[in-house]
Amino acid sequence: MQSLLARHVRSWPRLAALLAGLFSATGFAPLSLWPVTLACLALLIHLVQHAPDRRAAFTYGWLFGVAHFTLGLNWIAHAFTFQDTMPHWLGYPAVALLSLYLAVYPGLATLGTWWITHSSPERGGGRRSLTEGGGAIHDAAPGGAPPPPRFAWSPSPFRGGYILLFAALWLATEYLRATAFTGFAWNPLGVTLLPTGIAIAATLIGTYGLGALTILAAGALLLAIQRHYRPAAALAAPLALLALWGHLAPAPPTPAGAPRVRIVQPNIGQDQKYSVENEVANFRKLAALSGQPRPAPRLLFWPEAAIPAYLDMEPGWRARLASLLGPGDLLMTGADKVYFKPVEQDGFITQKLAGANNSVWIVTPDARLLGRYSKAHLVPYGEYLPMRNILEPIGLSRLVPGDADFWPGPGPQSLPLPATLGRPDLKMGVQICYEIIFSGQVIDRANRPSFLFNPSNDAWFGSWGPVQHLAQARLRALEEGVPIIRSTPTGVSAIIDARGHVVHALGLNRAGFLDSGLPPALTPTLFARLGNWASLAFMALLAGLAIAMLRSKS
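Given the sequence above, the corresponding structure tokens read:
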């Protein structure tokens, strides 16, 4: 009976961690229940604080992450329903497997926090014990009294050091998640703070620093619940000041003479996009929504892979596009750039498709191609198939139709636009679809653009993926201080100002267009100048303060 009771006592924190992770994901779009996320993180901090050993500390963080990512990334399963050569049933198992891996990162954060704050300098042969009076955890020496702990943990003193350390390690592991094995930076924790003014901190410390602030806010909530009001206030006060600053720092208004933009959303679903029978109808939708040419020049934006054409090889297609443009107009459209290689077959040399770039082309009214950007950060299993020689024979393929893999482009570039638009210095940066989620990697810092164009194809991703994608694009605008133009086939297309506010938007599964002036860019933010070095410096500051506080209480 006692052993059964002990098992129940040991298992309830694991269940609590799992449920906390599940509900914490409701802070992301489309639900945006950020107070729930803070409460769930407060519970995780509490569980890790009282974990009996380092294995339990890691397990709590890992279980939290498994549920957190499984719910937040449920939209990925939807993508498997559009490719007949990929088993449709694999969608939800793929989400679960990805979540089992991604959960390692919060597990490392909880393990590191527990290990640093509960370790003693003498580690040999001791047993773990909890003192009755102060609650300090040590390794008891084999022969008698325990050695002094490295960092004593007591219920009564100021607990800010523990929470600061947790925030620093969360930042470190979230940055690692975004960079390891090509990185998967989707849904960083800081995006949950977008509805609050605290998100303005991204201009200083970036998205990963904003994630650390989310942990600090959760820690302040936990301290308040535990009636430690002074340390709670110490953590909450700077967050409140950030929130006030965020509400008092709007983006400048769009000037009257700003270049005019039109964003087209044709509402062409993924099941229609690659159909040869629908090619003419799809083009007519795009053409009709683009409107008639006007005397004033304009920038016309179409989605990622909007047309099934090789523009550098098909002058007829370029002429069709040019016919839609007025004298000073420019069309920015997604279309592939393909490469061939000669192969010998039956004694003849033929050209075989070798690879492709996922590109955005600039088309002029006289049917010239003014510039091109090729996507650099490709989606594994979407745009290329890792370990193709192994996976292809067992029936697996890319989610995007086609036999050849996409090749990466050179990275962020700023493409100059003609002075006919009224701005002689107008430059466009481009980030295609998934690329926009990578904080600190979206612009050429040596040649800063006036705005970013983020064409995307979110028709794959149900109702949760597109709005989460939009939220992350908003963080890039906020970090870099530049407006972002988004054009997608089924939504959400939007104009985002340099403070990350959505100025105009077209919702999901609607055909339409947006007409507006181009919002102005701000002077470069601190993050725009330093990139993720600003986030890492903030991490070092938090870790240094944490260690100083913890040592002072030892």
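The radius of gyration is 26 Å. Try to locate this feature in the token string yourself.
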